[in-house]
Amino acid sequence: MSETNKSDAMQNEQVIATTLEQATIATTNNEVATAEKSEDVTSAITEKAVSEEAASIGVADKTVTREDIIARLQEIAAGEDALNCKSETEMLKIQFYKLRTVELDAARKEFVENGGDSATFIPAPDALESEFKQTMNVIKEKRSAWLQQQAAEQQANYETKLVIIQELKGMVEKAEQGTPAVNDFKALQTRWKEVKNVPQDKVNDLWKQYQQLVEQFYDMLKLNNEFREYDFKKNLEIKTKICEAAEALVDDADIVSASRQLQQLHVEFRDAGPVAPELREEVWARFKAASTAINKRHQAHFEEKKERERVNLEKKTAICEAIEQIDFASLSTYQAWNDKTQEVLDLQSQWKGIGFAPQKMNLKIFERLRAACDEFFRRKSEFFKSVKTSLAENLEKKRALCEAAEQLKDSEEWKDTADKLAALQKEWKSVGAIPQKYSDALWKRFIGACDCFFERRNKATSSQRSVEQENLKQKREIISKLKTIDAQATSEEQEAQLTALSKEWNKVGHVPFRDKDKVYKEYKQAVDAIYERLHISANERKLSEFRSNIAKGGDNLGRERDRLIRQYEAMKTEIKTYENNLGFLSVSNRKGASLVDVMHQKVEKLKADAEIVLKKIRLVEEQMEK
Question: Domain for residue 192, yes or no?
Answer without folding.
Answer: yes
